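2 proteins. here.
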Amino acid sequence: MLPVLSFLRRNFRYGALLFWGAVAGAVLGQGSGASLAAGFYPGPQTLTLPAGVRYTLDGSTPTANSLSYTEALRLERTTVLRFQAFDSAGRPQGPPHGGTYLIGEPPTRLLTVAVIIDPWRLFDPVHGWFVAGPGADPGDWKQPGANWWTRKQHPAHVDLIETDGRNVFSATTDWRMFGGMSRLHAQKSFSLSARKAYGAKRFRHPLFGPEGPEDCQFLVVRNGGSDWQRAYLRDALLTGLLRDPSWDLDHQAARPVQVYLNGKYWGIYHLREKINPQFIADRHDIADKDDIDLLEHEETVKHGQLGSYQRLIDFVAANDLSQPGPYRRVQELMDVDNYQRLQIAQTYFDNRDAGGNIRYWRNRSDPASRWRWILYDVDQGFGLHDGEAYRRNTLAFFTEANGPAWPNPPWSTLLQRKLLTNPHYRCGFVNRSLDYLHTDFAPATVLAAIEKRVAELEQDMPRQLARWKGSEQHWRIHLDRLRTFARERPTYLREHLRTHFAAGEDREVYVAAGPGGRVVLNHNVAAGEEGIRGRYFAHFPIHLRAVAEKGYVFQGWEGLEATDPTVELDLADARPRRIRANFEPLRHALAERIVFTEICPASAAAGDWLEIHNRSAQTVNLRDWQITDGTHELRLPALDLRAGGYLVLSEDPVRFAAAYPGLPTPLALPFGLRKSGETLGIYGPLGAFVNSIDFAPEPTPGDFVYALTDPGLDNTDPRYWATAAGPGTPGQPNPRELESAVLTSSDFYWRIGFGLLVLLAVVALRVVTSRP
């Protein structure tokens, strides 16, 4: 069959949209209009720009008087380009554009952040932000009045180039200085803010991998803080140790990068999320970031209001928290578990800057919102200034009632001191500290994390050290200091806990779970099939709770005589404990009859949505049925899903209704869907299994859906799913199903037509051959 005929027979709605979308993109010249994307090139390149634009090659902002583009540019070496269209009156037309073309640069394993900014803004001897300037006080080591303490911002073009060479972001952003005392370093930190006015209101790329945010508005490009010219990785390493979901402690995602500034190599940095109200709003689904009260240090207001926190501190100072009533009141005002885990992490790290250097927040518009803390700036931990810091009794340091003005003044230890007078909080602090010494803070786990971070930097470190006159020997000394701390710290911290709390002797405990569930220890970490083996204290009983996964039910304990799934285990007896929780499958009568059939994780107009189909022969009432993505859960209201019918759930029903007029209003879905894929499940009222899929759509630009090709097929088999560009068919049979019916019908007519052609050809041949 001719290719053109084959193309015409494809499904029009999806094939045609994909085809014409690609054609329109090519014809209309999407993007900046430059013929080459900014990025890495092995040798010289020729670059063309839109006719008539004005451009610069030194990083400065183009004006109507800049060079006028008249012919292709030959790029022989690394070049920074900025260009802008202007009207006849010299007014800018549209957003500015630019790019860093890295030609013949050394290879790297790091994401590249290429920044173009007016050179005078950073290096002018009077006004430049990278110089002290005439206002600096040379007699004070902090140099107050220096230009780098500015809070102003300035436009800068930014390219983010992935390790595979893809340019994943190219736009103008707002650039500003960042950091505290680290501004004194020669290699200075800065932050970037995406702005709609410049053409990109967010950095829309999963810069921090699949476990990080899919996009963000603000980024910090950090020089390592106090760890500069030492290990270069402490802060990212330590915050990255909080892997277990039980932490429930916000912290910045991190990724090492290399920076080029106006085409010049500027060294290794760490890309971080920026802690501000938008960071909190994104993490906690808060609609209006202006409702957030964000504080730092001793009641310094970064955003919002102070009053509620001041009332909390006044109450704590005036009341006996060892008593149940006042302690319950404090639990209503602050997230005690969140604060406790912050203290556990900072105590393990021996972060000597943790007393006053803190960030905490609440959602002022939510009456149920409580104060929560953010793990932040921990690079003074893990022996930054002392090779034997693993020996330090940081627990005593953080409970000192009469410490100096810095680093542990009395106000900074007040909450921990008062909370530890409560037996419930004290037991949680001790047992959870031990939980993490057995898991996230176990020497093998931390050592593996160190080696992973070192491997990320090793190839690029010689260039960094040469750029900023660092010492490889000094770098490796600090890496060894990290390793020593990781190996030795648990032993010393365990003894500090034992002594401080008169905790008694060690007790060996092993806890595991059979398939279909987990055991939660101390309302904290969860033991699965591999189990958790550790040593707890005789004077602190541990709490166990068997939790069945969706589709399973608790069956019973091995190693315990208890029948209840929740147990408090007294450890006075010295014998070792070996405990296992068992579970059995729980399957709904309609399993695999109510199924997912279409998923839309990428619709600019409608938002995320998904479709469920009833392929049973009966109407089903879905009251208390559950839809889950493993993290979030929706419990369905009382509604009937008829036999053969469809139910659509939308993250934004208002946008969905506007995008699909005429369709019934969908049910609200309280969570979004990942473009990269995830696990979705349907469960009955008691958690009985109904349907589950691991969807993983092919990478597709623009809007697309992931659709089951036929509702009768096994929807758990990825072979029967297809990724299709376009808006999808919510609440209706999927396009591939319709296409199959169309093709079946069209094949019939094509065969008839082809048969007639053959018959006519045979008749014509006989006529021709029968002539004399």
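next one coming up
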Amino acid sequence: PLVSAWSIDLMGQLSSKYAGRHGVPHASSLNELLQLWMSCGATRTLMEIYAQCLSAMISSCPDACVDALLDTSGQHSPHFDWVVAHIGGTFPGTIISRVLSCGLKDFCVHGNSSSFSSSSCAVPPDSLFPGCPDKRVPKIGSVVGILGHLVARHSASIKQELLRMFHESLCPVQAGDGAQASATQKATVPFLLQLAAMSPTLLGTVSPELIDSLTPLVLNQLRQHFTGTPREEAENLVSLIVHLICQTGSGAHRILQFLVNTAMPASVIMAPSPGREPVHESAREACDRIVQLLLLNLQKLVHNRSPGYGPTGLSGPMCHGEPCGRPVPFLDGLRPHVDDMCSEALRLERKRHVWLHQLLALLAVYHGASCATDCLCHMLSQARSQEELGLAVQLHNALAPSMRGLLPATVGKCLARVHSASMSDRQIARLLGNLALVVQWERGRAEVEGRGEGGGRRGERGEEVGPCQSGSGLAQAVTAHLRDLSRLLLHPDPEVCESACLLLSVSPVPRSAGPAELSGAVRAAAGLFFLLLHRRRRESALGHCLNLLTGLGSVSPAALKAVLQHLVRAALHGANRGLFGGGEAENSSPGMDPGLLGPADTHSSLLDVNLKFGTAVNFAGSIWAVFHAGVIGRGLKAAHKGTGLESEAGDEAYNVYRLINLAVRCSSNVRVQGENRGESPGLESDQPQPIDPEAAKMVAVVLVETLCPDVTNSELSWPPEEHSKNTVERDIQIRKRFEENPLLFDLLHLVALGRPALCYCSVLLRGLLATLMAHWEASRDSVTSASPWHLRASCQLIACMGQGQLLPPALSNMHEIFHKLTPFEVHLLLLSVWEYLRDKGPMPQKFTFSPERGQFYRDFSRDGDISKYLQVLHSVLHKNIATLGYLCGRFQV
């Protein structure tokens, strides 16, 4: 003991004597000071002597050596701390506990003279955040330096010793321990808090394990431990705890969960677990106050930074430049757990979601654009109700004033996550549906403000849950990503398709969209329309698709032409014919868009297509292209069978009505009022809407291009009857297409509504009329009802030409008597129609626009006397006067 005391005292004198010399590091630089003294031979020899003495006495009487070490440390601190740190690294188990014990005793001594407490030992209130702890509390600064030096290699021992001191201080004081032991126990928790405040390293080391050890039993012990503490002392301790939490980075999320779970009010639904002691109400209230003070302190730290502080990202007053303020470790530690915090906030549990919502707003402001968009994106993809979605809207409203461009950045990140396959199909559908709902809130708010009424809808707690305060900002941000959203219209999951369609249908189509974007959107929307018909989806999904296509067609004439072209071509394709009462064709039409094929076409074999008759070799101009009836050795061609996609008769009629109604809406350039308000869009009015002649002309051109690709629009004149012999092949193909597609007659009626657009379908009308005339001429039946399709086609053809004013009323009414005539008589009547059209060709120049009626009309009085074209009709009426006499008045000029 004498040698050890001599060596340690000599090192203390040397350390103090040469502490102020030039080149000697300050006492706070413990590592540099240790390296300097250990490079000196004399001090290194003294250190080795003391270490040998301590190793020899460690098992028998270590107290003598350690007491001498600590006494010398008290005399020459802080210049002597390098010796204690080196010895502690050699004998950690002994030195760590002794250093802490010595620091606690010194803390009690200095605390007695303060105004913090006149009877207990604690830290003075004005030294909770000491600017120079070495002057205020001499020993605690040395303890912090020594433990900070040892924590790199002996963190487990330090952690174990600190937790031991904490739990021992909560144990009841024995009767014979005296007042000093009680005072020491009272001062232990403030001492440990002061250590953590002065050393962030020690705070990060012990905080995770400390949180795990704070069970309800320990919390109740803490409550009893500080019962009777003066209010001022308690407030100082709470302030110190809040400060320490703000400075804690590692384990920040665990600390937050502990605080929120403990501060949550007791539930009357869920009883506490059996065998587990419940948290006392006063402890819960104390934790509630800590949470509130923590949020207040974080708010001051975040918003009191200089205006240039913040991560780069959005152009805002707090979102440019490099960080120049003090960082907040607690918020840094919460950054990786933003998604978990958003999910917990959406649970809407009493106070929990309010606290977490405030904390998420602070996190977003502190970390900038990246964190803000992450929060909004996660909440939008996880919200399952309007109340939950309202939290995302409130968060945006809180962040929007300080972050310009937040909505476009959020939408962009959401779509980036969608296309990166990091979200499930259900989450994608929920995200798109929530975005659509917010856009509808925006539109509803705009309408209410336009009427001068009050604000938005309110939730259960009276807070406004929608809509956004950014006007139409979200709708504009959505339409800026028209290309990305259009790709989702043909997503394999039906719910994703319908949600994407809903979002696009409630958002205005940008007028500045390029041709490529519009073309892709039109193609995908038209494909979705037919997929919905195949799937027989609910009415609302079809209504949204109709609204989307109508909106796309209203952007420009080119977009309208693209919509009509895709609709007509896809409707006439073999995979979709069954929807409208037609049969599947033997081979697909040339030039079909693969994106509009039905479900059955996606698995077609290229080899099977190439093996089909007429695919590889063009037999045009030969009899085999017209009269191909089968393959030698295999018999006649089999009748067309259904593909399994045909609907029932009622569904077919409904599908036809849907398609024609869509074409009428697009052609009329009229958006249905009340769309997306729970009504059935597209079925509001039975009155025929006015058809734009240019749109009807587009439909006519598409029909001609689809059925007769080799015909130009210049073939409008009607040739003599003999000329039909040169177009037999083409006429038969036209007749076959009409027979396979009953929808073609409905499309012709649609074209006829937009006079004079039907003139551009002359080649189709000629081909169909020629084949019908040939059929009735060759028919040997006594009644026309023996050929039902030809009778129906003849009636619809004449009615269509009458509706388009290609025929005068006297000739256009003749289809009313076809069912009561013989086939040859029908042939004679159709021949008179041919002669009229040949002499009075269906030319657009013969139509005049009427401003009063708002449409074109044809004045048949300019064509001269038409009685010669009615002679055959009058003869047929005279022959059948017994049955048709009452109709003679309808066929007079």
